[in-house]
Amino acid sequence: MAELGAGSLHGGELAFNYQERELNERLKRLYPAVNEEETPLPRSWSPKDKYSYIGLSQNNLRVHYKGHGAGLCRLASKVIRVASKVIMCFVFSDHAGHGKNHKDAASVRATHPIPAACGIYYFEVKIVSKGRDGYMGIGLSAQGVNMNRLPGWDKHSYGYHGDDGHSFCSSGTGQPYGPTFTTGDVIGCCVNLINNTCFYTKNGHSLGIAFTDLPPNLYPTVGLQTPGEIVDANFGQQPFVFDIEDYMSEWRAKIQGIIERFPIAERLGEWQSVLQNMVSSYLVHHGYCATATSFARATETTIQEEQTSIKNRQRIQKLVLAGRVGEAIEATQQLYPGLLEHNPNLLFMLKCRQFVEMVNGTDSEVRCFTTRSPKSQDSYPGSPSMSPRHGASNPHLHGTGADSPTCSNGVSSGKNKQSHNKFPGLSSSSSSSSSSPSSANYSESNSTDSTKSQQHSSTSNQETSDSEMEIEAEHYSNGVLENSSTRIMNGTYKHEEILQADDSSLGNGLAEEGCTPRLLCGGNQAATERMIQFGRELQGLNEQLCREYGKNATHKQMLQDAFSLLAYSDPWNCPVGQQLDPMQRESVCATLNSAILESQNLPKQPPLMLALGQATECLQLMARVRSGSCSFARVDSFLH
Amino acid sequence: MACLLEAPLRISVLSEVTASSRHYVDRLFDPDPQKVLLGVIDMKNAVIGNNKQKANLIVLGAVPRLLYLLQQDSSGAELRTECAVVLGSLAMGTENNVKSLVDCHIIPALLQGLLSQDLKFIEACLRCLRTVFISTVTPVQLLYTDAAVIPHLMSLLSRSRRTQEYICQIFSHCCKTPDHQMILYNHGAIQNIAHLLISFSYKVQMQALKCFSVLAYENPQVSMTLVNVLVDGELLSQVFVRMMQRDKPIEMQLTAAKCLTYMCRAGAIRTDDNCIVLKTLPCLVRMCSKERLLEERVDGAETLAYLIEPDVELQRIASITDHLIAMLADYFKYPSSVSAITDIKRLDHDLKHAHELRQAAFKLYASLGANDEDIRKKIIETENMMDRIVSGLSESSIKVRLAAVRCLHSLSRSVQQLRTSFQDHAVWKPLMKLLQNAPEEVLVMASSTLCNLLLEFSPSKEPILESGAIDLLCSLTQSESPALRVNGIWALMNMAFQAEQKIKMDILRALSTEQLFRLLSDPDVNVLMKTLGLLRNLLSTRPHIDQIMSSHGKQIMQAVTLILEGEHNIEVKEQTLCILANIADGTTAKDLIMINDDILQKIKYYMGHSNVKLQLAATFCISNLIWNEEEGSQERQDRLREMGFVDILHKLTQSADPSLCDRAKTAMQQYLA
């Protein structure tokens, strides 16, 4: 409000920004299910989609009737039009002069149609002036409906008129509907996309259902007919007079009630065993061996996979997540002979990662050169909490492996880069939320060990500087599903915690090297040489693969990215430094885990995540096929 | 022979049933307390959900024994608790069960039990008390006979969620009169219960909410206190508003809306407050929708009718909200033709609520149409509306008849409707029938409606007269009830307005002068006013005045004198002076005033009165007496000049009041001419 009062040019601008921000916030709160990238929400009247008698002002929110205006050409064209509809003129022969004729009617549509994913959509129009006769119509129309009319007169057009209070449902004759409205009144129009009805409000009072069986993709529309008529729209720029959120809450409760009370009747037992299997398989998948065993015991279910197999997978996963990829490869070759041989792409991916970890100084191939860090120190029995959580957090990661089309339909299309700029607001908020709590967590977890306090501070520094990377990582890991799923992930799985666990495990390796800044291969000369040598081997492997299987663009890119790290003096702060983020291990880890499971004839993805992905996809599909209830059946409202 | 055979058979069946029940009762008398306990537990399991078993046990005398065990300290906490549980279970049965329990003095015994220290036992007693008190057969007064009970219940409110739930439920069922409200209020009910509104338990919340609704009903003191109560830093009205959110359970929304309605009607919340206009009213309209249960729709409509009754703005808002007027038309469609075919259970349910629905709809229509002509028009234009009212007037249910006549009364305030729909549907017929033999509350409404139908422009006036309305109305004026006397005389007054000579004479004859004068000394000022109004209407147009004055002149003059001398308010005196002015307009009747010095002195007095209205009426009277071109005007002018009236008139021409000034000047001109 202070900005509004400023009076300077800047003041107006600030007020506009303020209004814009409020609009964004309100729209996000009202219509959380709408993906504006796909289906933008109406935010103003369209300067293009209007009849010429209509004038727009105030950021295209104010509509006024300007009539034929000057200009002989326009007059001439009107004469011609009138002549062609002589009969019409007779019908309305009692109307004389400007605004008296139905031909004087003019409408404007909003910039976008109402997305079905709104579930319930609402906008308000304030009558600033009723002008000469107050022939104003407020309503909805489909694209292409004649704009030289008031809303409601034509097919796919619906309106509530101020002069007589009638509702017009695609017809020239109105039905008695509500009170008349005039200067000072605020008329609201609510579209329920769940049952395809519409009701209006006057000054905050609901007037009851006006239309049923509405078609999809309607635009907010207003029409005016006589000089002096002025109306202002509120698409969410300001608080609404009518309590629309209360109405929405009723429908949210209704839809959730339907879901919660979904009849399963005599299939209750069946459901229970399905649920138990889902939980059990999820635990097994991620290698929560002990938990899975006790769960199986309690529910009297059986686990398909053998205990040792689960433990083996768990061990390998932990190695990858600790950045010791070389050991992980060794272990895999030992425990699952033939797996990597049959899967050269996976092997290459692992080797690339191993190279990155060498740069990082975490892989055992380079760590053995550093005297100060005996191997025993970073063997992980001491930190059991860390690794499986990674897997848990990234169920969708399996899809990132180039060759494995994942759970859901329509997922892989255009997943690559789309996430980057879609939700600027979202990513900034996630960056702040992920960096601060994690550092808090960190200090807590280490508070017992006083010797580590220094290391602690250095790591948390690193963490803040890395926050940009974390975001990237988040997008990357979520890139599988489309954007709205990003939000689900953020809400449900606590990335920061996971990252935290990772950092502390990383800390075991890194900080032992001393408090010095991070150095290539831990700063050891021999290690660096070993790394260079390994790089050559990797290059050789690539060439070999090219010979055997033909060129592979993905491999080339991977290799290029990995080698690029050497081009910078500080690889951690360079354009490709993101690779060094421990988060990046997760995708590799998940791909490896899936491959192992697949080789054992077990599902490469836990059914629970499959179901979750399925549900999320279904909701998005519902939005596309215009089933409004999807907006009140959010997957995340059932995840706690 | 058949009869003989049948009797023993029935006995044997009965004895078979009672034998098993007998066994349970016998075990209550076992000397081993442990066995008694087991017996009671078995009994508990046996009676759950079994009304027959419950009745048997009561017949076999289990109740006194259970009560005895419950009251003995020696029984031990567990046994006493189980006894209370079994008694509570018995109370869950039929009304007769509850009656038997109450007859066995269960209530004092249970109240005594509340003094125990054992929470489980207290809860069991409260649960049983709750069950007994929510039955309609239990006299609520039993809760108040011992003055110590209420404070003790208040103190138990802090013990557990169960005690909170049961106690609130007892309060809400036992608070039936203003006295009850004040007892609970004076014992701190508001402070003790307010915080329960934000309890974690829905049941506690609901019972607390119900408590507030009964406490606030028509009670300004409670309501004024409620608006200032804070619950966890939030105003109570805001807590209620939150409870009306649309995702809350319907029961909660409805009860919260009732609380706010009662607080508003008691004057604690303004009718233009947003929590009424934007929250309570729309919430109640929603309760009337087809989606709600029949009970909820009845409750919603009645509460809404009560809320909007005195406020035209609320009536206007309600009339445009969610097509309420059309929505109410649906209330008349039960039992629907569908329900009769589909299933008998549904039909039964519909039938049970059909009366309630109709009367609720009539009530709400009555409130909606109380003040606004446009709304009345909308109501009457609703499908078959007049037919529904007409048939409602002759329904068997008194509640429906009363509501229908209320609705009719509300609509009868419309001049246009009186001339059209009312005439088309001959509503006067069922109305007259209703007046013949009806309970007082119906009579009050019906006669009040009749008053409107007898207005001069109403086409119903004629047929009503012909159907013997005069005698009926005259008999109403002799009623004990002031409201009926007012309506009777009011209707007669309307009837006499610009009526023909015959009707006026009929009225006078039927009423009798004795009754007329009795009414002139009626303690109810409204009756007096309307009687004077009747007199004034009777005494209009010159021939009528002369005729009536020639036959009843003496008594009328007497009555007038009496009233002018008596202690009456300005309006009464004004009306009386107007009657005198009418008399002064007669030809022969004038003399009755001229020969009456006393009256002339009084007129003179009122011409100099401080109240302009009285001055005007008195001046009007004199002006009539001295009017030129009438026989004997000269003598009258002279006589009145002698009495000093001219001086007064002269003074009045200087009056600050323009109409009085004009009136005096016109009178003075009579002398100048």
From TrEMBL, chain A:
Residues 23-240 form the B30.2/SPRY domain. PROSITE patterns: B302_SPRY, CTLH, LISH. InterPro entries: B30.2/SPRY, B30.2/SPRY_sf, ConA-like_dom_sf, CRA_dom, CTLH/CRA, CTLH_C, LisH, SPRY_dom. Pfam families: CTLH, SPRY. Residues 427-450 have a biased composition (Low complexity). SUPFAM superfamilies: Concanavalin A-like lectins/glucanases. Belongs to the RANBP9/10 family. This is Ran-binding protein 10.
